[in-house]
Amino acid sequence: MSNLLNLYNKYTQIAKRSSLNTRSILDIFEYVLDIKIGILKDELKRDINFFKYLKLKYLLDRFINEKPVEYITHKAYFYGLELYVNKNVLIPEDETEELVNWVLSDFPNQKINVIDLCSGSGCIGLSLKKKCDKFNVTCIDISKKANRVAKYNANLNNLDINIIQNDLLENYDKDFDILVSNPPYIYYKDNDVSKSVRKYEPSIALFVKDKEGISIYKRIFDELDKKHFKAAYFEIGYNQKEPLTNLLANYKFKFEFRKDINNKDRMLKIEKLL
Fold it and tell me: Is domain 86-272 annotated with CATH 3.40.190.10?
């Protein structure tokens, strides 16, 4: 038998020394033990069997070695939704919630067809559907495994959306009003990408081969140029405003960049000129 509180205290101190979030240590304990742990940690003042101790220690060691806690507990939160995540989808980021806010402010309570392109876990499309049930949401991703996660999250949150496996908008002939996308835009040799992200998050959802990181945007813009739509919204890299502005000069689009909470240009909206 092994004492939980001693284990918790040990790994909390290790996390502090490593500048890791100590709350994540508690999340791992709650995940393995399937309990909620209060402020006084009374739930940890007991022993556990050796096999659960080994599982806890293994997962805690993975976290200390920079595996994101979301991939350990398979749980992430986005715009008030609890989501299942695994190695096949990106962990939703707080900054992406600002993109959702932009869409909701432009199209409040309207009955429209919405595409979440490169949808991954489905976080954008599901949060839009949760906030506005009138939206007819379709999540599109090239990854079959990612689409399974999105379907699981739709069921988890009792939300009715469509999920399609497709390579961006190629051969997609259904009508839609708005498109929202957080596509891959990081150059695969970018030295600023953390070891944890490069090791654990799916490369297909992150990386592109062109240094400016705009090749996927170009493919999407080429398809949007052939279609009728009201607006398209994108998350972009903090250093991509200039190359995207140059790219957009080749299309008849009206466009607007918007800064995120950190005062960086991280969002783009485009509309088709009449």
Answer: no
